[in-house]
Amino acid sequence: MKLWVSALLMAWFGVLSCVQAEFFTSIGHMTDLIYAEKELVQSLKEYILVEEAKLSKIKSWANKMEALTSKSAADAEGYLAHPVNAYKLVKRLNTDWPALEDLVLQDSAAGFIANLSVQRQFFPTDEDEIGAAKALMRLQDTYRLDPGTISRGELPGTKYQAMLSVDDCFGMGRSAYNEGDYYH
């Protein structure tokens, strides 16, 4: 069994060294990508929290205004007959609604987008994705693995279970097709 695992790993790294893409051939680069993706997920979660807080403020304001306008619209003339209500209406329309507009227009995505843009320059390219797909197909050929085995991630000697989604399989097929590999 150890010989089988060693042979599988040697073949995998041999396949990787034959392909000319950059990222997927280096475990060090791939490890960096894992941590970059983890950082992006954290940044995305922070962005979501900011957006949820913003939406919570907007919902609260909308509920408050709904209660107020349903009361005032029921008897508009009677409501406005009171000078304080007339003042508050003018104040809301002059001050509060523009403040809400400012809140709605706040762009809390800027931090996340900036982080994504910085990280994106280190992302793998289309060539890297094609190379990784080719490496899996060569592994399939070398060990005569059927597509179901590959898609279920049932590779001998691997520590973690990793399945290919339908989208992943389609992507591999597209890569093979675009490279003129009609066998896979």
TrEMBL record:
GO molecular function: procollagen-proline 4-dioxygenase activity
Signal peptide feature range: 1-21
Residue intervals of the Prolyl 4-hydroxylase N-terminal domain: 26-157
Entry-linked Pfam families: P4Ha_N
PROSITE patterns: PROKAR_LIPOPROTEIN
Gene3D superfamilies recorded: 6.10.140.1460, Tetratricopeptide repeat domain (1.25.40.10)
Origin: domain of life: Eukaryota
UniProt entry keywords in alphabetical sequence: Signal
Gene Ontology CC annotations of this record: endoplasmic reticulum
Protein name listed in UniProt: P4HA2 isoform 4
Species name: Pan troglodytes (Chimpanzee)
